[in-house]
Amino acid sequence: MTRKSVISSSALAEPAASLSGYTIGVTSDHRRDELAGLLENRGARVVLAPALRIVPIADDAELRAATRACLATPPDIVLVNTGIGMRGWLEAAEGWGLAEPLRTVLSGAYLVTRGPKARAAVRSAGLPDDWSPDGESYEEVVDHLTARGLTGLTVAMQLHGESQPEYTEGLQAAGARVIEVPVYRWAPPVDPAPLHRLVDLIAGRLVDAVTFTSAPAVGALLRAAGPEAEPVLAALRADVLAACVGPVTAAPLRKHDVPVVAPARARLSALVRTIVEELPKRALSIEVAGHSLTLRGHAAIVDGDLKPLAPAPMAVLRALASTPGRVLSRAALLRALPRGADEHAVEMAVARLRAGLGAPGVIQTVVKRGYRLPA
Fold it and tell me: Alpha-carbon distance 231 to 194, whole Å?
């Protein structure tokens, strides 16, 4: 059974309290299998589409130069942005024979950790962490350090995959000398096809949610969309839930006026719980011919039973459910189907829908007029 079709038995047992019937896109590369597993355990169908990949640069001349700069002029403040970055920096220093001198320099600095992963990496290295922003944002870090006073101080800033010039300039404007420490960089995925497929699925409203675990992934998705960027943003503003691991990741989407959900704590498990809480709220539920009917992404729940449906029958059901009780002609339903379909395709979709729902009377034929849900 493929990753995209896994629905656990426990999820089927309690569809209303799980992600059964929903399709969710995952844009992360690092820890993608962990996130996908958490979603699948809730019954979701997962579409893996890494937007970026992390490329370590342990042998990069810039990282070595930044490390030597820190050893030559020990920084007063060190900003640790990511756990993977902190671990990668120490591992690279170990390879160069500079691990102990670097640890000595770091232990003497005021260590700021921007988030729980960074804090955990610092503590596991036996180093003290002095302060973390509650909201995990760069703005909080700059405000905190500026309030402490930065004139004449040196700040070592471990980069989050790419330079953050607006924050570097903010620290410099407050009087600090900034050493940027590039431990890794973002690169496009080796195979861009899954990401382009996800773009099409989002624009077509064929996924129910998309998860983001880094801000650069948002930009990468929109760049991959190209001329479809606006349809993708329109879908994220309306029908497709944008779920971000934290406020920093959510910031680029909010700049595009995309409503975002994010957990209070930046954890993958908390992100999944947030999705579990949010998606069912968006589901349409109606009473039809004595049956309880709830629509999810690629399935309907009929009297508590999950009924997975193919795209065409699901499209017909959504069209009928958008105006319960009203008769929709074959021509009207044809517009809900993919381009190239004809009225015969509508009849086939209705037949498959009736068979898939297994509830007599839910889809009613009105002779010479069309079909309706007798809600």
Answer: 18
